[in-house]
């Protein structure tokens, strides 16, 4: 997901900064904070690596889908993140349920991103047998959509 963030940031002309953070439990596992010059994806540092990758992919789903904040999403988060000036925050998403179309869409994009990452990891593995190498040559290179 770090590579997806790098590529998406380059494509959008604004970097995406990933930050593990001890988010309160219960509460959201991830948070996207958009500013004019950088976007932040904060994710729960107190969970497994696989869960962290899913959280990041979900927040990327919001960005890729062009989701906006709901009323009140920005309220109350400024005290928790003193490094981000409140007047720079343009958007913040921090939901804890999947009852909205935006949340379901972000979850679908996250699933697609993680599936694609898994495929690319398998393709990147070196072929050990002549038969496997022939199969890779016949199938050609994977074309990534990001």
Give the strand line-up of the largest sheet: 1-3-2-4
Strand content is 5-15%
Shape: globular
Count of DSSP-assigned helices: 4
Span between N and C termini? 11 Å
Q: Average pLDDT across residues?
A: 76
H/E element string?
A: HEEEHEHH
Number of strands: 4
Structural domains: how many: 1
- The helix-and-strand class reads alpha+beta
Overall radius of gyration: 18 Å
Low-confidence sequence ranges: 141-146
Major sheet summary line:
4 strands, mixed
Task: Describe the structure in your own words.
Residues 127-146 are annotated as: Disordered. This is IrrE N-terminal-like domain-containing protein. Helices cover 42% and strands 14% of the residues. The chain is an alpha+beta fold. The protein has one domain (2-139). It has a 4-stranded mixed beta sheet, covered by helices on one side. Helix 2 (49-65) crosses helix 3. The termini are close together.
